[in-house]
Specification:
Blueprint: E1 3-14, H1 18-21, H2 24-37, E2 42-49, E3 55-61, E4 64-71, E5 76-84, H3 87-101, E6 105-116, H4 118-131
Antiparallel strand pairs: 1-5, 1-6, 2-3, 3-4, 4-5
Length: about 130
């Protein structure tokens, strides 16, 4: 299996109660909680309250970033968690956010970023097959 530099998780959450994703204060508490829960290193953050509904926020991490954009009138939140290093931290952060928002449906994509050693592995496999 190829080694990667980072893990990028994208999730669309549906059926989220509007009061959980409408106010910027709640979004701030959610993302800051995810950072602490996953033992990530916060560098800075920025949050914005939309009118009449919704909020957005981003936390810049030493490991990369976490972001959210919400549409409480539709019960939708889109989440982006990207971390370098230990991939379990990305999963912990995303799991924390999903557990706090309790959506009825989650559409998730997971992407390895910065794939290393794939060429070496391909060459190693090729070499093994040629010996047979």
């Amino acid at each position: 299996m190829a080694k990667t530099l980072g893990l990028h998780i994208l999730a669309d959450l549906y059926g989220v109660e509007a009061e959980k994703i409408d106010r910027v204060e709640d979004i701030r508490e959610l993302l800051e909680g995810a950072v602490k829960h996953a033992n990530l290193t916060k560098i800075s953050s920025h949050y914005y309250q939309f009118q009449p509904h919704g909020a957005t926020g981003v936390v810049l991490l030493a490991e990369s970033h976490i972001s959210i954009h919400t549409w409480p009138e539709y019960g939708i939140a889109t989440i982006d968690v990207y971390t370098c290093g230990d991939p379990s931290k990305a999963y912990k952060a995303m799991d924390y956010i999903v557990s706090k928002l309790s959506p009825t449906r989650v559409d998730k994509q997971v992407h390895d970023r910065g794939i290393l050693e794939e060429k070496e592995e391909t060459e190693e496999l090729r070499s093994m097959l040629l010996k047979v």
